[in-house]
Write a structure and sequence with these properties.
Length: 203
């Protein structure tokens, strides 16, 4: 793979008050969802550390690491990280398969006047499944949806930065997808677990 690892130093609150207020609003909505979970089960919804990811995105913007403005989140859930990217001035798009999450994420963005979009569909580009081994039990391959990019005539190579929170065992596959379909110079930001952020640039 032609991916260059980039070191970043993070603290969990290295972001603006506007981002902090957004995260508070998102947590309130997500807590309401968990209260209603028996009525709307979403077994594939797992949260990342929003504060840590917000700090990482803020550093990417402040250090001018991003070669462009287009941001995409792979599996955006309620659109929390997508909203952070929008607040930071990026042209932010979140891709999500679950209709309920798309609807709730769009409401969150609108209610808080955050400029970002959520696309319903598959975050994997067309042809990406071929990069997975047949024996890989990858959750990302279970969504029988068309790639979201096709509906908007915006291929993955248009984007300057991708954010992903991979399921256990999927990080290598997502790196392969990024390496194959992203453009040269693009960034891949991955949340890997508590206090663990990885940042790569495609060479």
């Amino acid at each position: 793979m032609a991916l260059l690892s980039i070191e970043i130093e993070l603290s969990e609150d290295a972001f603006s008050q506007q981002v902090a207020d957004w995260l508070v609003a998102c947590r309130a909505r997500i807590e309401l969802y968990w209260d209603q979970f028996p009525q709307k089960p979403l077994p594939q919804y797992i949260e990342c550390d929003f504060n840590l990811v917000a700090s990482a995105l803020t550093e990417c913007v402040q250090r001018d690491l991003i070669d462009g403005r287009l941001f995409v989140e792979w599996g955006c859930g309620f659109g929390v990280v997508t909203g952070v990217a929008g607040i930071l001035g990026l042209d932010a798009i979140g891709v999500e398969a679950e209709p309920f999450l798309c609807e709730e994420g769009r409401k969150l963005l609108k209610d808080n006047q955050v400029d970002a979009e959520i696309w319903q569909g598959n975050f994997l580009p067309r042809g990406a499944k071929r990069l997975a081994e047949d024996t890989d039990p990858l959750v990302s391959l279970t969504h029988d949806l068309e790639p979201a990019y096709d509906s908007y005539d915006m291929p993955l190579e248009d984007f300057a930065i991708v954010f992903a929170y991979p399921w256990p065992g999927e990080e290598h596959f997502l790196r392969l997808v990024f390496d194959r379909f992203a453009r040269s110079g693009a960034l891949l930001l991955m949340f890997r677990g508590p206090y663990h952020i990885e940042l790569y640039r495609k060479r």
